[in-house]
């Protein structure tokens, strides 16, 4: 049985990947993975694809092991794996809850690596992998430290495995969008600390980002997909800027919330 697998399929970019999948890859079934069963059931009503709904919490290794066992039991031919599950939290790093930080690491990094590792034995030549990273992956960013670092890992990891898997004829691509009109921003703003990120720049629709990623994967040899000329041009310019400068630029965009005010010198005579 030929299948595709999409994590984080209940909303946002993952949901759009499911909508567009039939235009790019022929499969017998799509495994859609998320925690929200009701949202996944809705997909059945708006797509002609045969869906296998799988309710898993990928922050938990127990649930990841359930996924591994499903593969071992059913032994499918995985034509496409889309690792889209992930989330972020905004705020000063030491005021975000410990639980949120660990869950970000577990979902954005650990789950992605384990799902890729467990799926690869069931992938043949011409199979493909999409890992959702972020434009944030290209430079350090204050007030989103764990999220940024996790996506930087995803970007480099994807480039590396894409090179290593060439001998098997398997391709991997990292999707690196800027802010997208999904539940990501509202979720990221729900934190134990006062939200700091306030200037998001252009916010685009998920469908255009997904269409560009599918095109880059199936019609080009790219290992990174970035939507929009402005984003690509800005990332090109960043190659020539020291990291300290990009940190200060981003901080200035947010209004220097951590900058301490200088004490005024006293003008009184002794």
Compose a concise summary of this entry:
This protein has helices at residues 12-20, 37-46, 61-74, 98-119, 145-164, 184-189, 206-219, 229-238, 243-253; strands spanning 2-7, 29-34, 51-55, 77-83, 128-132, 171-175, 224-225. With 270 residues, it is α/β, with parallel strands linked by helices.
Q: For the record, what is the CATH homologous superfamily label? A: NAD(P)-binding Rossmann-like Domain
Low-confidence stretches: none
Q: Terminal Cα separation, in Å?
A: 88 Å
Secondary structure class reads alpha/beta
H/E topology pattern: EHEHEHEHEHEHHEHH
Highest CATH level, the class: Alpha Beta
Largest sheet: 7 strands, parallel
Which whole number gives the mean pLDDT? 87
Work out the number of β strands. Answer: 7
Can you lay out the helices and strands and say which pair or pack?
Elements: E1 2-7, H1 12-20, E2 29-34, H2 37-46, E3 51-55, H3 61-74, E4 77-83, H4 98-119, E5 128-132, H5 145-164, E6 171-175, H6 184-189, H7 206-219, E7 224-225, H8 229-238, H9 243-253
Parallel strand pairs: 1-2, 1-4, 2-3, 4-5, 5-6, 6-7
Helix pairs in contact: 1-7, 3-4, 4-5
Structural notes for this entry:
The chain is α/β, with parallel strands linked by helices and 270 residues long. The protein has a single domain, classed as Rossmann fold, CATH 3.40.50.720. 43% of the residues lie in helices and 13% in strands. It is built from nine helices and seven strands; from the N terminus they run E-H-E-H-E-H-E-H-E-H-E-H-H-E-H-H. It has helices spanning 12-20, 37-46, 61-74, 98-119, 145-164, 184-189, 206-219, 229-238, 243-253; strands at residues 2-7, 29-34, 51-55, 77-83, 128-132, 171-175, 224-225. The chain has a seven-stranded parallel beta sheet, with helices on both faces. Strand 1, helix 1 and strand 2 form a beta-alpha-beta unit. Helix 3 packs parallel to helix 4 (98-119) and helix 4 (98-119) runs parallel beside helix 5 (145-164). The longest helix has 22 residues, at 98-119. The chain is globular and about 55 Å long. The relative contact order is 0.13.
